[in-house]
Amino acid sequence: xxxxxxxxxxxxxxxxxxxxxxxxxxxxxxxxxxxxxxxxxxxxxxxxxxxxxxxxxxxxxxxxxxxxxxxxxxxxxxxxxxxxxxxxxxxxxxxxxxxxxxxxxxxxxxxxxxxxxxxxxxxxxxxxxxxxxxxxxxxxxxxxxxxxxxxxxxxxxxxxxxxxxxxxxxxxxxxxxxxxxxxxxxxxxxxxxxxxxxxxxxxxxxxxxxxxxxxxxxxxxxxxxxxxxxxxxxxxxxxxxxxxxxxxxxxxxxxxxxxxxxxxxxxxxxxxxxxxxxxxxxxxxxxxxxxxxxxxxxxxxxxxxxxxxxxxxxxxxxxxxxxxxxxxxxxxxxxxxxxxxx
Length: 342
Fold this sequence. Notes:
This protein has 342 residues and is mostly helical. The protein has a single domain, classed as Hypothetical protein af1432, CATH 1.10.3210.10. The protein has helices at residues 7-18, 44-53, 56-60, 79-96, 101-110, 119-129, 136-151, 158-165, 176-199, 210-216, 220-235, 245-263, 266-269, 272-288, 295-300, 306-316, 319-330.
């Protein structure tokens, strides 16, 4: 009797039959830095996706700021919901172009693991504090390579690591799936940040210039559909992932509008000076007292400079944990007095 192919082998066969010649097939991965026993069921990219979903850094994204600090509402976007949006859009683009959806999803789920508390404000602050600078894409790669699993890292595949590092607009990922994530990231944050700004009362949908709305649409759904469709029309059957010129220009104009009216507004950055004082104070404290870092980070000091390890710890914090830790270090605790007259 012929041996039945494993589930992974069936996936390989499906990819070989149906994926674009420009796709990165799971069977062709460049592999991991440390060899591991292969899984009979899952491809390496599927295993990477699972490792990211179950890691601690991914769980912390639910309490990290996207734009607005600790918003008092259940429907504002957090770093976690942003990540899920990017994964959904990246998979949609990959499916439309017959690329590897598993690879695109794994990159998307890991692309912001190294983001700071307090959103891009936190990134700007740590970039000023750390002598070697701080960039969230590089920190995301450091999270999966070094910090997760108590310093062992997740040992992800080359293609996923490359996509995480190069997901910013100026990055140059080695796979089209990585480019899917880069495009999806920009589509996602512009649209859901606009929805949050409307929800917060900073602007209305009609404030978006009419020229942009005529091209992209009036709602988040319309704009996202326009963007994904544009990528399909511009890139199908080609070795690239990009939008049509008109849609790309309109998207860039919308991004510029968002920076002017939302990202750099007093409403969004009004608390940044407080966040800077908090992070600066904690950075100085742990640089002087590195032994007070959690033991996992203390162990890293044997191999990495203190400023890097302190940034590792601060960037791992959620918004509310950063506030908690600041209060624990710098705010005096109240005393309980005994009334001797009773």
